[in-house]
Design a protein that fits this description.
Two copies of one chain form a homodimer.
Chain A lengths: L13 H24 L4 E7 L5 H9 L7 E5 L14 H5 L7 E5 L2 H10 L5 H20 L3 E8 L2 H13 L9 H8 L1 H11 L9 E5 L3 H22 L30 H25 L3 E7 L5 H9 L7 E5 L5 H4 L5 H4 L8 E5 L8 H4 L5 H21 L2 E8 L2 H12 L10 H8 L1 H15 L6 E5 L3 H21 L4 H7 L3
Helix pairs in contact in A: 1-9, 4-5, 4-8, 10-19, 11-19
């Protein structure tokens, strides 16, 4: 697109252009209200060359807008050195609430292209990230986000002219960075790479290349692109995507039916094993910390299956400076108003840390499915989206472990009744628990489907038989220590390699 | 306290101690429910020597607790180099919600003492920070927080023994840091400084010095201190503090009565002045960015006084990479469940950035006072707390500007009616606006009291006459550019000096 870009003269004269800008700015201000009423989230991604005027364009776009209903996110290349999360995390984190606009001063394009051209990531990792960007954009669209992608284009000559102008003025010389000069030198390589990148998710959301050599013209074109896209989205209503049909390396199980709920452990053996495994885990925690491996441990299971006690035994030997237990309950309004994975993306462990999720993103295909909190398209699409999410984590080098803490209905009843009859435990049992219990068959079906569709080679499910809670604790500890041992002993952790061997 | 610390033998034998630990741990678990029901926020601050076992103690305390109702905050000295906010910000940010526990692995004591002994801050700045810590603790208590302060004490010899043990083991040697060795060398200086620091806020919340040479004994003593403090707080109910009586350098005004609402500007002059001042502001924005001066601009005023348009003219020339407009509306449940300044502490501008607050913390002494959303003690105490908050900001080097955008009731009525009669502006006017209008006299009284009690030398109020909105815009631009010019031209920005001249 860029290589064959031709500057075209607008038919408008100066006055007409000015009037058109004022008209569209007004329109954008009014669209804010309509967008709010329709609960549409709108993302305006502004990419482009250094010195092309990205910041200025954003300012001209927002200058009449109501700040209650938009935000601006700036991704400054120079501050992004610290790669403690999967690269998409920083973009996910900024997602706007339904009804609001987000303007992004560069985003996943600049981040990906620059790291590649700087040789901070390998060619293989670059390809992987380009693919992830496509997945990200598809997920945004499918979850109702309106994404408008603008690219501010200037020629090499014009860029040089602008850099020189900054450089020659004593007050602005400091703004010229090494990065600017480097891009100017490497303009042609950037041009080709930008061009190629623009093929990503081109059907999901097309690029608008703006002629940034004229500020007014690019502003007008940006206003046109945005107001048109918003108008269309308002007309059609919020988009709900279907499942993408992408295939994953599924393991085809496990199934609840295969669980042996009589599994038990001798109390004396339990005591010895618990101590042994906890000690081992403490050592491994140190090692993953030093090797900067992030660890994500997911707990799902029936009410009263013993998740809490299981988690506590697992967490006990961990250094509190390096782990978090993250209890997941019903989403807050702010969480509900965003991509359903947002509240998990923003709670990922930093590399070298452990996050233990007490309930997880699988709520989408269990409680939200069964209670009708999301549409059928939503939960059917979620299996693939979740597989993509977990792939992003493991590609980054994370260990992802998923436990289904399993009991039978009779055991649950016993435990519910025991809670009811013990004064200091009564708070643990609510009306909702009894209601959920009545839906056991529906949940069972949902769980089986989940196990089938999200047990992947890179993030398999483990069913943990927990009629004997002690047995269950030892099992999870075993699986966790085994997995960490493997991760630590591997010389190369995949996703990290791309970052760390070359630095 | 530390210099005269004597190890004392507990009367308990090993078995009795173990049983007592189990009993108190159980008690702590049950207190979680009571604390939740009473909506008490509880902070357990764990300070102490390197290698004294702070992390371990926290782990032993939390191991049976329900992770839904506590969190752990770790302040790692080595990661705190980047001083972009007032030093208390990082502690404020972690404040727990009502009903929850927060365990802190070091806090404001270690942060302050270490920076001082490292000569990262001057002696003068150290004294200032010690005072701020006292203010912080008082504010926490007065706002209902239960703060339990523990110090894990070990002798110099014991510390050496522990460091050596780590060092001699191949797996743990990496955990010995330069900082540990430095503290060991400088043990005596630390001892004296810790001791002196412990006099801070001693009446507000006393320190518990624990004998950390014995893990079990210090665990037991920690459990005793925590459960006792929580029991007492549960018994007495949530504490509500009175105004502290501290004096501030008040300016004694301005008063609304002194405002000349006929003030106006000629439209042609407005146009020229607006351009000139906006251009000037753009240049100044660059300079404060380079000098790393944080800027906080507060907007308050009558409904329909023209805050929004005023803010937009001010924001227009700013580089979007360096400012945020922060609209403040009614607090979310998470905000409501914390210190009322929490949502402002967590939205401060980084040094070099500008934050424009559209409504502010002054809601406490206006809408919250008038609508009875807080108690009389709460809003009466707030004047002083707000003065302290703003002092912390300006001591750090921030420019704090406060505008009251002023009109008379007739002008408001005109504007309300105009909004009502313009279809695309109707959303701007609500039933609530009409209700607030009826309370004009009550608000007027509250505003006058606010202007009187919070107009300080370091953060004065400006009344901006806004019957002529154009006049008002020019006035704020003038005040802002003047203030930034002064800040930029001063060779030394107070609070920053302490940090930056020595680095």
């Amino acid at each position: 697109m860029l290589q064959h870009f031709k500057r075209e003269d607008d038919k408008l004269d100066r006055t007409a252009r000015k009037e058109e800008i004022l008209r569209l700015r007004d329109k954008l201000v009014n669209q804010q209200q309509a967008v709010l009423a329709a609960k549409l989230p709108v993302i305006v991604l502004v990419e482009g060359w250094d010195s092309a005027g990205k910041g200025n364009l954003i300012n001209e776009l927002i200058c009449e807008m109501d700040p209650r209903f938009y935000s601006v996110a700036v991704f400054d290349r120079t501050h992004e050195r610290d790669e403690r999360f999967p690269f998409l995390q920083k973009f996910f984190q900024q997602l706007p609430e339904n009804g609001k606009f987000l303007f992004m001063d560069t985003g996943w394009m600049e981040d990906t292209v620059t790291k590649y051209l700087r040789r901070e990531i390998t060619a293989e990792e670059y390809d992987r990230r380009v693919e992830s960007c496509g997945v990200f954009e598809r997920q945004l669209r499918d979850n109702g986000y309106v994404v408008i992608k603008l690219f501010l284009h200037i020629s090499r000559k014009e860029q040089l002219r602008r850099i020189s102008a900054l450089w020659e003025n004593r007050d602005t010389a400091w703004r010229v960075t090494e990065d600017d000069l480097w891009q100017q030198r490497e303009y042609d390589r950037f041009l080709k790479t930008y061009d190629k990148f623009m093929e990503t998710a081109a059907e999901t959301a097309p690029w608008h290349v703006l002629d940034a050599e004229s500020r007014k013209k690019s502003l007008l074109d940006a206003l046109r692109a945005i107001t048109l896209a918003v108008d269309r989205a308002l007309e059609k209503g919020r988009y709900v995507g279907k499942a993408s049909g992408r295939e994953f390396p599924l393991l085809g199980g496990p199934s609840l039916k295969s669980a042996d709920l009589t599994a038990a452990i001798d109390p004396a053996e339990y005591k010895t094993e618990l101590k042994r495994l906890q000690k081992k885990l403490a050592v491994l925690h140190n090692q993953i910390y030093r090797k900067r491996i992030p660890v994500v441990i997911c707990y799902e299971g029936w009410d009263a299956a013993g998740k809490g006690g299981n988690i506590r035994r697992l967490a006990y030997p961990l250094d509190p400076r390096g782990f978090d237990v993250i209890p997941i309950s019903s989403p807050t309004p702010g969480e509900l108003a965003r991509h359903y994975l947002w509240r998990f993306w923003t709670r990922l462990p930093r590399s070298g840390h452990v996050a233990i999720f007490d309930r997880t993103w699988y709520g989408r295909v269990m409680v939200e499915r069964i209670e009708g909190f999301c549409s059928q398209d939503d939960w059917k699409r979620a299996y693939g989206e979740i597989n993509e999410f977990e792939k992003e984590l493991t590609d980054f080098g994370a260990v992802v472990l998923k436990f289904w803490i399993h009991i039978d209905p009779d055991t649950q009843l016993e435990r519910f009744e025991a809670r009811q009859n013990t004064p200091e435990k009564q708070w643990k049992i609510t009306e909702e628990d009894w209601r959920n219990r009545e839906k056991w068959p529906a949940y069972e079906q949902a769980v089986e489907e989940m196990l089938l569709k999200t047990s992947t080679e890179y993030a398999p499910w483990h069913i943990i038989e927990s009629v004997d809670k002690k047995y269950a604790r030892i099992r999870t500890l075993q699986i966790v220590t085994d997995a960490l041992e493997r991760a630590v002993s591997e010389n190369v952790v995949r996703g990290m390699k791309s970052l760390w061997t070359e630095k």
